[in-house]
């Protein structure tokens, strides 16, 4: 039995995966803040998942964790996970000491890319574009995470596409994240609300000029991310996931329309058929936690196995 945990700033999404690759249990629990609380919440999530699904702890062969921040995959150390209050944490070693189960740790977006590849039956090359509070991406080629020389392959959020655009948290102007990241859009919107991006879309539908402009940024920013991923890595498919997928067709159709509009004046871009190469994960997909389970299994020859 394999367990996968998607550790976010507020919650942990945990899944139990059978040897045949079937998700047989899933739960969500709050995430702690700071080193000790993060480790404790992970340990409690594994134990709760086992208890709720009548799984003996001795039957869990591995646990994989997808977590924000910089991850040293070999050591299982997490660096600069600012949304969790973690600066440097030997996560795999500490969690393994608590439960006596092998742990592996991976960046959350890379884990999600792996999970999305399996859940969507992707073959060949695929990019996973995460549109949430921020913007990030991971690439999977022939069933393996493609990291690049320093682990940043596919990270498109901080590619500047407008040097006179809004200032990004990274210090540049006009990064893709400033256009289609939920946090940047909420800041630009500047109005109170629990779901600011949803509010922007609804206000745009009602004719609000500021909202119409920000909605266009969202769609064109997503299109720019797709374009960069295809032009730089020549992936077959870009699968879009993350919190903004809750917008459903209002996000997918908008990005597709932006890609089509951008291709109207360029025979080269038309030849790439970018609008036909995007897919959306359904909202609430377990891709990140499922991918973490696959990472935890650490299959030597290939990091994923495709299941029918």
Describe this structure as you would to a colleague.
- By secondary structure, the protein is an alpha/beta fold.
- Helices cover 39% and strands 23% of the residues.
- The chain has a five-stranded mixed beta sheet with strand order 3-2-1-4-8.
- A hairpin with a 4-residue loop joins strand 5 and strand 6.
- It is globular.
- The C terminus is likely disordered.
- Belongs to the ROK (NagC/XylR) family.
- This is ROK family protein.
Keywords:
ROK family protein; alpha/beta; 13 strands; Nucleotidyltransferase, domain 5; 308 residues; ROK; 23% strand; 5-stranded mixed beta sheet
Topology (elements, then pairings):
Blueprint (H helix, E strand, L loop, with lengths): L1 E6 L3 E7 L5 E8 L4 H18 L9 E6 L2 E3 L4 E5 L4 E5 H9 L3 E5 H12 L5 E7 L3 E7 L2 E3 L29 H5 L1 H8 L6 H10 L3 H25 L3 E5 L7 H15 L3 H6 L5 E3 L6 H11 L11
Parallel strand pairs: 1-4, 4-8, 9-12, 12-13
Antiparallel strand pairs: 1-2, 2-3, 5-6, 6-7, 9-10, 10-11
Organism: Microbacterium galbinum
Protein name: ROK family protein
Family: Belongs to the ROK (NagC/XylR) family.
Q: Could you give a quick summary of the protein structure above?
A:
This protein has 308 residues and is an alpha/beta fold.
């Amino acid at each position: 039995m394999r367990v996968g945990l998607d550790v976010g700033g507020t919650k942990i999404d945990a899944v139990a995966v059978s040897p045949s690759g079937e998700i047989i249990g899933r739960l969500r629990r709050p995430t702690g803040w700071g080193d000790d609380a993060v480790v404790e919440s992970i340990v409690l999530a594994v134990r709760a998942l086992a208890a709720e699904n009548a799984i003996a702890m001795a039957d869990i062969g591995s646990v994989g964790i997808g977590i924000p921040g910089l991850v040293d995959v070999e050591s299982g150390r997490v660096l600069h996970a600012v949304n969790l209050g973690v600066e440097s944490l030997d996560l795999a070693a500490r969690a393994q000491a608590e439960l006596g189960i092998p742990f592996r740790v991976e960046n959350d977006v890379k884990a999600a890319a792996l999970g999305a590849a399996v859940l969507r039956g992707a073959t060949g090359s695929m990019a996973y574009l995460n549109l949430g509070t921020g913007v990030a991406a991971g690439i999977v080629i022939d069933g393996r995470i493609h990291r690049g020389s320093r682990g940043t392959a596919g990270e498109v959020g901080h590619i500047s596409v407008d040097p006179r655009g809004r200032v990004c948290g990274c210090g540049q102007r006009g990064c893709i994240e400033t256009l289609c990241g939920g946090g940047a859009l909420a800041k630009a919107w500047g109005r109170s609300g629990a779901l600011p991006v949803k509010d922007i879309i609804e206000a745009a539908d009602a004719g609000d000029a500021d909202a119409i402009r920000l909605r266009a940024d969202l769609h064109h920013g997503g299109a720019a991310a797709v374009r960069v991923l295809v032009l730089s890595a020549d992936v077959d498919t870009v699968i879009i996931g993350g919190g903004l997928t809750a917008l459903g067709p209002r996000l997918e159709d908008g990005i597709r329309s932006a890609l089509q509009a951008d291709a109207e004046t360029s025979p080269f871009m038309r030849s790439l058929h970018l609008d036909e190469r995007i897919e959306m994960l359904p909202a609430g997909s377990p891709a990140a936690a499922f991918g973490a389970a696959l990472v935890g299994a650490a299959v030597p020859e290939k990091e994923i196995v495709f299941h029918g």
